[in-house]
Write a structure and sequence with these properties.
The complex is a heterodimer. By secondary structure, chain A is of the alpha+beta class. Chain A has ten helices and five strands; from the N terminus they run H-H-E-H-E-H-E-E-H-H-H-H-E-H-H. Chain A has one domain. Chain A is 51% helix and 12% strand. In chain A, a hairpin with a 2-residue loop joins strand 3 and strand 4. In chain A, helix 2 crosses helix 5 and helix 6 packs parallel to helix 10. The radius of gyration of chain A is 17 Å and the shape is globular. Chain B is an alpha+beta fold. Chain B has two domains: 143 residues, YojJ-like (1 (3-Layer(aba) Sandwich); 182 residues, Trna Endonuclease, Chain: A, domain 1. Chain B has eleven helices and 14 strands. In chain B, helix 7 crosses helix 8. Classes of the chains: A alpha+beta, B alpha+beta. At the A-B interface, helix 2, helix 6, helix 9 and helix 10 of A face helix 1 and helix 2 of B.
Chain lengths: 241, 350
């Protein structure tokens, strides 16, 4: 788990142990930092390619969550295997930190910054999009086989996500089977490193069990089916409400 | 393992699997072919919704990295109007004959051209700096979609006559084979012609492989547009030329096997003045029987419902080969298609 105490505004207001931990980081990014930033860039790239840009902070974190939950379907490791069930839904302080760093490096643009206070306390929201210089960085990243596989996966998840109706996108990831599992209260940790706890990947793979030859259902099919499934759960719940 | 809630599961697999024309499994999102597939789907939906007056030509151009970072879009943004999502079931009309869109058509902008025909649009694309982008040109009046993978300034990669394709029944394999033969292999002008010397009725050395590939393209890319059509399907007792999973015909438990053969009288080295035939009709009959037995073996190893032995006949004369009894005994459907050496228009005159 990268941080158990998300900072208000996600990186824009570093305080307490997160800030101290980051202050202790070496000036040069380590391998895990670079991998996380590559993940962020490729996710924004996928959003841009699929007409989902700019990506609000809320959608960014929910997409990161979905990609983490569904990574096993593509035999990939999650970018961040643990997440706290936060009062505002999915939020990854570490990924937010990397997003902010990329913005400072001129590879990501931020716009529509909004500070506000609601029932859950003070917060900051904003929209993020790729800056053009990021494209050459992405080209360099995609020279790595491992990153190309990651990019293909992210594009598939983002395409499945982007294909849903606009008014459902913000809440779609809340209908995720693992996240919505009532056995986990707010503040509990979801740990995708334990495959038995990842109901999302299990459900996506479950579709393959239902056909005569599971190989006929590609990982891409499973991702699209699962996202469509979440959509139906959420739409059904809204209809009943 | 979590159980899928049956109340929401209903129809989900259909949505992904059923490979009706125009609605079929998605191509990988990272590929350009996913853009062409989504354009194709939009065109089919728009024809059903009858949003076109019939006189338009529309170019769908890919914004490879997204419109946010698209330099051509940036430079000519004043020329474009946002037209909303084209990736949804409900199709709304729009004006403008150049559509610049993301690969999933979720974000699309249109621009107009001075003349609404292919040359006018082509020159407009060049003006806008889009001439080398992957483009699909759609003519609703002709129900014709042409794909230019390297841009409209290059040769088209493929043409799809959506009206002819719409009239085909994906479940009628006989009808599909007849259509394929008529347009691909019957005449030397066909897309899948395999003559080395049509005048001497000599086919290419790799005629069988070439026909297999073109029939595969026809079935996989044109008819079913599904990855559940496989060529060289590897089995323990050989490789099936073309294997069609039943799921593409809404018949998941009944797969189909296609074994292909090219019959010939003359080999590739034949020269005028030598013996009339290199291969006798008796040789060809033995070859057909071998194909029937192969097809039967593939039925056994794949558990398929049906197998076809499809023979493309390049022999000197269009004469039946009597194998019906053997075919029936083996449970294999035998089809023979004679390949003409005169062009279809010449034939009509004759």
């Amino acid at each position: 788990m990268t941080a158990t105490r998300p900072s208000v505004g996600g990186g824009s207001d570093d305080s307490g142990s997160d800030a101290e931990a980051r202050a202790r980081r070496p000036a040069t990014a380590g391998r895990s930092d670079l991998k996380a930033r590559a993940w962020v860039l490729l996710a924004l790239h996928a959003a841009s390619r699929n007409g989902l840009s700019p990506l609000s902070k809320l959608r960014f974190h929910r997409l990161v969550y979905l990609t983490n939950a569904l990574a096993p379907v593509y035999s990939l490791q999650a970018s961040d295997e643990q997440i706290v069930k936060f009062r505002r839904g999915q939020f990854y302080p570490n990924m937010q930190w990397h997003l902010d760093r990329l913005m400072a490096e001129g590879l990501v643009k931020i716009e529509g910054v909004r500070h506000f206070t609601d029932d859950d306390g003070p917060w900051m929201d904003a929209d993020y999009r790729l800056a053009r210089p990021a494209l050459s960085t992405i080209d360099a990243i995609l020279e790595l086989v491992e990153m190309r596989a990651l990019s293909e996966f992210l594009q598939e998840v983002v395409k499945a996500y982007a294909s849903q109706e606009e008014d459902i996108l913000d809440d779609l990831a809340l209908a995720d089977l693992t996240y919505a599992d009532m056995r986990r209260a707010r503040g509990a940790v979801i740990d995708f490193s334990r495959s038995a706890d990842n109901l999302s990947a299990m459900a996506a793979n479950r579709f393959a069990v239902q056909v005569r030859d599971p190989r006929m259902l590609s990982p891409s099919d499973r991702v699209h089916l699962y996202v469509e499934y979440m959509d139906r759960i959420l739409t059904g719940a809204r209809r009943r409400a | 393992m979590p159980e899928i809630d049956p109340s929401v599961d209903d129809g989900l697999q259909q949505a992904v699997f059923v490979s009706k024309i125009g609605e079929n499994p998605s191509r990988p999102a990272s590929t350009i072919s996913s853009f062409f597939q989504d354009v194709y789907r939009f065109c089919v939906r728009s024809l059903e919704a009858q949003i076109w007056t019939g006189a338009e030509t529309i170019a769908f151009v890919l914004s490879e990295e997204g419109l946010d970072v698209d330099t051509a879009f940036d430079a000519h943004s004043h020329a474009f109007t946002h037209i909303g999502r084209l990736d949804q079931e409900t199709v709304a009309g729009f004006t403008g004959s150049v559509v610049l869109a993301t690969r999933n058509l979720r974000l699309a902008y249109s621009a107009s051209a001075v003349t609404n025909d292919a040359p006018g649009i082509s020159s407009r694309l060049s003006e806008l700096g889009l001439g080398s982008r992957p483009t699909a040109l759609f003519v609703p009046g002709q129900k014709l979609l042409t794909e230019y993978h390297e841009g409209i300034e290059q040769k088209p990669r493929s043409k799809t006559d959506t009206s002819a394709i719409q009239s085909l029944d994906p479940k009628d394999l006989d009808g599909l084979l007849n259509y394929y033969h008529e347009h691909w292999t019957r005449y030397p002008s066909g897309y899948g012609t395999c003559w080395d010397s049509a005048a001497n009725r000599i086919v290419e050395r790799n005629a069988e492989r070439n026909i297999r590939n073109s029939l595969f393209i026809f079935l996989e890319k044109v008819v079913y547009r599904s990855k559940f059509v496989v060529r060289e399907y590897d089995r323990s007792n050989g490789r099936v030329d073309i294997f069609i999973f039943g799921i593409v015909m809404d018949d998941p438990d009944n797969d189909r096997v296609l074994e292909l053969k090219v019959l010939r009288s003359r080999s590739i080295g034949w020269k005028p003045g030598s013996a009339t035939r290199t291969y006798s009709d008796a040789n060809n009959r033995r070859y057909v029987l071998r194909g029937l037995n192969q097809a039967k073996r593939y039925i056994d190893s794949t558990g398929s419902k049906e197998a076809f032995l499809v023979c493309f006949d390049a022999r000197l004369t269009d004469a039946e080969i009597s194998v019906e009894a053997e075919a029936t005994a083996l449970g294999v459907s035998y089809r023979r298609f004679f390949m003409e050496t005169a062009a279809d228009d010449e034939k009509e005159v004759a």
